[in-house]
Amino acid sequence: MARMPGLDVATTTVDKLLTWGASNSLWIFPMATSCCGIEFMAAAASRVDLDRMGTIVRGTPRQSDIMVVAGTITVKMAPRVKKLWDQMPEPKWCIAMGSCAISGDFYRDIYSVVPGIDTFLPVDVYVPGCPPNPEELMHGLLRLQQKIMDFRAGKPREAAERPPTPEHMRRPSLPRLDDPSRPEELSRLQTASAGSLGHGTQMNLAALRRSKDGEALAAKLAELKQPPVVETKKE
User: Fold this and answer.
1) What DSSP letter does each residue of 36-90 carry, written as one string?
2) CB neighbours of 221 closer than 8 A, spacing ≥ 6?
3) Alpha helices in 153-233 (DSSP H)
4) What does pTM read for this prediction?
5) Residues 8-44: pLDDT tens digits?
6) Of 12, 49, 137, 195, which alpha carbon lies 20 to 30 A from 168's?
């Protein structure tokens, strides 16, 4: 900043200007399905006022760079959420708001509920709580701002720190995206299922299982479920 009588001149680089713009113009596409959505709406109201940090809510994924998943996602909804995510332009970011989006919480053992959106979406920030209040969502957005600035500075895009799963809770049968044991066919089938929506050839679960990738995926998931073999020494 240079100052002279009657004139202030500020200089910067184009990269710093773009980083400032990217981290302070967070356009959110809300995927609110339950009580977390009420807290999300409260965060956008006058008391917390997300607008003051450049965060506005858009009704179309093509104009958004952040998806906030707030609430329970069912198995039937998952391909729709995946398709909306795929329609968002890069770079894009995802926030899992609330314990239902993170792990399914009370409903994680129900056949129709996804036990965590990170089984089919890459999550950048976890906001735990049931439901998290608007201030916690604001804190999550501030963490995302720092992550965007680090990404713009050339640092690797590291996986978000996931809240630990208690020992008494079962892990989901489908490996998460950051799980090294996750079969490649699983991601391909999830993308194919989402991409086929709306074209009159929606791939239902039976069709997926009959496909070549479906049979290979079933075999690999069966291997993951088998207990490890313990070798015993012969005396």
Assistant:
1) HHHHHHHHTSTTT-GGGGT-EE-SSGGG-SEEEEES--BTTTHHHHHHHHHTSPS
2) 173, 174, 183
3) 184-195, 205-210, 212-225
4) 0.78
5) 777 778 888 888 888 888 899 998 888 888 888 888 8
6) 137
Instruction: Show the tokens assigned to 232.
Output: 């015993």
The token pair that represents 47 in the structure block: 């008391």
Place of tokens 């093509």: 62
CA distance 138 to 234: 61
Q: Which two tokens stand for residue 141?
A: 């957005």
| Strand-strand pairing, 2-4 and 7-9 | antiparallel
- Tell me how far CA of residue 178 lies from CA of 84, 96, 184, 229, in angstroms: 21, 15, 12, 25
pLDDT (tens digit per residue) in 51-104: 888 888 888 889 899 999 988 888 888 888 988 998 899 889 999 998 888 888
Tokens 């977390």 sit on residue: 36
Determine the residue type at 46: S
